[in-house]
Amino acid sequence: MNRIARFPVLAAAVALSLLPLITGCQKLQARDQLNKGVQAYKSARYEDAINHFQKAVQLDPTYPSAELYLATAYAQSVVPDLQTPDNLSRAQMAIDGFKKVYDRNNKDIGSIKGIAALYLNIGKYDDAKSWQLKAIAVDPNDAEAYYTVGYIDWRQAYRNAVAQLATISMTDSGDGNPKMSKPVCQKLQELNTPLVTEGLQYMQKALDVRPNYDDAMSYMNLLNRRKADLECGNDAARKADVQAAIDWNSKAMGTRKANEEKKAAATPGGVVMDDSK
Question: Region Disordered: start and end of each range (predicted)?
Answer without folding.
Answer: 253-277
